[in-house]
Input
Amino acid sequence: MGTDLLPALALGAEPANPRTMRGPTRTGALIERRLLLRVFGVLGPAEALVEMAAFFTVLSLGGWALGVEPSTAVLAAASGAAFAAVVLGQLANAFVCRSETRWAGRVPLLGNRLLLWAVTIEAIMLLVFVGFPPLARLLGGAFPPAAGWAMAALAIPAVVGADSVHKAWQARRR
Output
């Protein structure tokens, strides 16, 4: 609920593409092989790599080494960084999913104001989830250090970049 619920709902308000009714009728399954490849072979791995990098960066900076149990505080901060990467990756995912074929930068940013509000609210929720100590403790996290935030922020270009490469590859195949 704290990662992409509102942006997913806002995508339902995305303006229709004027070319939609001009092309051939889609007759395949709702979830097809091409979609599964994009989700599990491109976007998911890009997010997962950044999430794990954020987690291990904070652990390492906190003195953790292989075979050593991290302190509770370091583990909570690392979890907070990983969670931040999940949320930021999902927010980027909302923007790349606005079009099946076009790079996110080619889709007008103000074309879906509801999505902008949803992303803003989710970002605020992220800060509350990791920054409000009682809630952060309940969720098993803590506010990440600057390096954790920096690593988590890499989820945005990672998702956009992976999606862009995938869409370019798909365009070449067509």
In short: The radius of gyration is 18 Å.
